[in-house]
Amino acid sequence: MVGGAGGQARAAVVGTGLIGGSVLLRLRDAGLDVAGWDPDPATRRRVREQGVAAPDTVEEAVAGRGVVFLCGPLPTLPATVARVAAATDDRCVLTDVGSTKAEVATAAATQGLGHRFVPGHPMAGADRAGLDAATPALLDGAAWVLCPGPTGMPAFRRLAALLIDVFHARVVPMSAPEHDSAAALASHLPHLLAGALAGTVQRSALRDAVLALAAGSFSDGTRVAGGPPERTANMLLGNRERVLAELDAVRAYLDELAEALRAGDPGKLAGRLAEGRTARAALHGRAFTAHRREFPAAADHAGELAFLRELGAAGGHLTGCRVAGGAVTYTAHLPATPPLG
Amino acid sequence: MVGGAGGQARAAVVGTGLIGGSVLLRLRDAGLDVAGWDPDPATRRRVREQGVAAPDTVEEAVAGRGVVFLCGPLPTLPATVARVAAATDDRCVLTDVGSTKAEVATAAATQGLGHRFVPGHPMAGADRAGLDAATPALLDGAAWVLCPGPTGMPAFRRLAALLIDVFHARVVPMSAPEHDSAAALASHLPHLLAGALAGTVQRSALRDAVLALAAGSFSDGTRVAGGPPERTANMLLGNRERVLAELDAVRAYLDELAEALRAGDPGKLAGRLAEGRTARAALHGRAFTAHRREFPAAADHAGELAFLRELGAAGGHLTGCRVAGGAVTYTAHLPATPPLG
To answer: Transmembrane residues, as ranges (chains A, B) (predicted)?
Structure first.
């Protein structure tokens, strides 16, 4: 547990919007001593109405805490990391929930915080924003990326254990650049495509007729276009190069589909669609096998780090993390096929 | 009611897959005398196991019926229309459930069936296919496009009344070409985009990591990529020109989003996303006002047809259709803003 010595973890959440608020409420429900802070005084009042301490300054909120979740908007994170680091003990674990990881990871490393800042990204969200949309269940069982670094292994272990314990998270360990590439396809492109489809309909002379006909495929395909445009724009801009690269890949695929369609070639068109169906079937149809690995807790961590990154790259996740008797023991789930080499 | 003279309608369904099977089961549950036919003998046996007559020939299945639903694959429809027309009385109403309407409407008109063939398209579906995936509730309350023609108004009225009565359908009247243009954006483009996104992930070196991270946006955005590739290919090919034209519009929108992203312009990017959000908000947030219109039942139908097509173009739908005392009375819902001119 974060907080050490078998004691109750003391936690803080900085930025109590949709994600931060949901983290806060879950930590409170789990019985942790938790404090919240938000730049908006009215939001702080609403945090207090939830029975959670919300001091007027971020320094008061994070002082003496064992773990701090940084949940403000993406562009504010590098400055917030510095401010919270200065107000906390060097043993305090810091993490964030931003949708891209390379930039904030570099900013934290530059500030000499690689040993206690663990970049994080829970894969969950909602179209609504703000504390009023937050719920303790929002992140329950979510895939939650953490980016362990060579100097931050003890911090990673403490945080992973807390997330599995309190949020039942499927902790996916990845390097920050690999996370950002995968997130471009897993999350950012779906937002871009939904925005383009919904925007095209908005400009269409047939808009009202289209909306009258719209059923499952349009409704599902544009759901995330209902989210706050500024939040989505920040997310895309925070991963700009990778999003543009993956957009090129999606457009090349659309070119192939359009070519088969223009040629009136049902076999070729169905073949391209079948490739996509394979990925879709793998999304919900994967079987997992359970694995268990032990490493010396005080070693140089190279083998441990390689195991973790290989696990994430293979589509697996941690289901447990325990440090005892000089060893760290991970339990993990891996997709059954293909097996991890 | 179809069948006339206050008697029970007698119906048939030709092609008892996902949609046809769902139509059949619903008609059966509503107490109609219904027969089914499918080219596959095993499927006919399963229809009989549902307590529904399923003769071995299509001619036996449709003989003496007042309404026949043609629910086979899109490319087979023109031939099936001719075959079923030859085996039924000239007062028997024929309709189909195909995802595009211009081609089958033209085929039926060419065969001199404009007075009794009413092109139809219920906006519902599922990723699975076949009778085993059919349920009586699949089409309940669905938007259901019907394409009334100048010579087929009595057939249209009888069918609309049946669909509203038995399926609680929101009947959307449209011309066949307008349906196909609207369906390209409401249904076909979502399938194309889902296929391109899922296919790109399938080919990506990061496939397994992407699937590990995939949450709501990816899952929703690729749902229809899980459907049978041949069915989707037929649907897209049946509306090829319009799908390609709308794909160009969506790609132009993606170009604008990419340009704002590449320029690092949060305001411009959020502005483009906000346009899409407006359409998305209109999808579920529309308020409707109730309307009622009466026409002489035996007139030349020009005013009635104009009213119906204007209703569909404005995003409205019929909630009732009744012929009595020499007049036809429609009740309809129209989006509250903008009002119908």
So the answer is: none
Q: Please, which residues have CB within 8 angstroms of residue B11's CB and are 6 or more apart in sequence?
A: B2, B27, B32, B33, B34, B35, B65, B66, B67, B68, B69
pLDDT attached to residue A4? 40
Among chain A residues, the shortest Cα distance to B146 is held by: A213
CB B298 within 8 A of CB B290: no
CA–CA distance, A105 with A264 (Å, rounded to integer): 49
Interface of A with B in 146-185 (CB under 8 A): 170, 172, 174, 178-179, 181-183, 185
User: Can you list the residues of chain B whose pLDDT is less than 70?
Assistant: 1-8, 337-341
pLDDT (0 to 100) of residue A7: 44
Q: What digits encode the pLDDT tens for the residues B200-255?
A: 999 999 999 999 898 789 999 999 999 999 989 999 998 999 999 999 999 999 99
Q: Which residues of A touch B226 (CB under 8 A)?
A: 277, 280-281
With a CB cutoff of 8 Å and minimum separation 6, the contacts of B313 are A206, A208, A209, B174, B178
- Report residue A8's pLDDT band, with 50, 70 and 90 as the boundaries: low
- Of A13-17, A283-287, B12-16, B71-75, the range with the lowest mean pLDDT is A283-287
Describe the strand order of the beta sheet including B67-70 as a list of residue ranges: B33-37, B10-14, B67-70, B93-96, B117-118
Query: Domains plus CATH for chain B?
Result: 10-174 (3.40.50.720), 179-284 (1.10.3660.10)
Strand spans (E) along chain B: 10-14, 33-37, 67-70, 93-96, 117-118, 120-122, 143-146, 170-173, 288-296, 317-324, 327-335
How far is residue B192 from each of residues A263, B197, B214, B310, measured CA to CA in Å? 16, 9, 19, 29
Q: Which residue has the tokens 């219109």?
A: B293
Q: Which residues contact B174 (CB under 8 A, 6 or more apart)?
A: A209, B145, B146, B147, B182, B309, B312, B313
Give the span between the Cα atoms of B260 and B238, in whole angstroms: 35
Q: Residue B279: what are its φ and ψ, rounded to 5°?
A: -65, -40
The identity of residue A192, as a single letter, is: L
Q: Of chain B residues 259-318, which have a CB less than 8 A from chain A?
A: 261-262, 264, 266, 269-284, 286, 312-317
